[in-house]
Amino acid sequence: MAQRVTEILVGAGVVAVAAGFLVYAAGATGLGQTASDASRYEAVFRSVQGVNVGTDVRLGGVKVGSVTALDLNPENFRAVASFTVDRVLNLPEDTAVIVASEGLLGGNYIEVQPGGSPFNLEPGATITDTQGAVSLVSLLLKFVSGDSSAE
């Protein structure tokens, strides 16, 4: 009987830890964030390599949103990233969006760089001042081969 009580307690502990991980994951990915908490924007890139749905959107190194969708525009063959940003942030019209890397072994994220315009973007606006992902492999190949045509 004592062994059965021990098994029940251990099972309850495992379920509690699993529930804790689910709550943490939901908070970290913004799963519980409602539409009223965030403004949605789009950005057009040449390449969004390394960015997926759920990727962080950061401003000044602080997570302020996440990527909600990635699509390809068949007319101009550009990647369109839809993302959310906390509603309390009013992004200026000249905001730039960059696919940045956390380092050599880190993942990519979307970095928002606000400009200095006195006018703000409306939610749902498309940001065209973008810089896509830089391929580390192509940079290394250019360095090794001595190719200076990218200057």
Blueprint of the fold:
Blueprint: H1 2-29, E1 38-45, E2 56-59, E3 62-73, E4 78-86, E5 96-101, E6 108-113, E7 126-127, E8 130-131, H2 136-145
Parallel strand pairs: 1-7, 2-6, 5-8
Antiparallel strand pairs: 1-4, 2-3, 3-4, 5-6
Structure report:
By secondary structure, the protein is an alpha/beta fold. The protein folds into two domains: 1-32; 35-143, no CATH class. 25% of the residues lie in helices and 32% in strands. A hairpin with a 4-residue loop joins strand 3 and strand 4 (78-86). The termini are far apart.
Shape summary: extended
- Beta content comes to 25-35%
Give the radius of gyration: 21 Å
What is the helical fraction, as a range of percent? 25-40%
Q: Order of strands across the biggest sheet? A: 7-1-4-3-2-6-5-8
In DSSP terms (H or I, runs of 4 or more residues), the helix count works out at: 2
Tally of distinct domains: 2
The residue ranges in which pLDDT falls below 50 over 5 or more consecutive positions are none
Largest beta-sheet details: 8 strands, mixed
Structural class: alpha/beta
Q: What is the ordering of alpha helices and beta strands?
A: HEEEEEEEEH
Number of strands: 8
Separation, N- and C-terminal Cα atoms: 76 Å
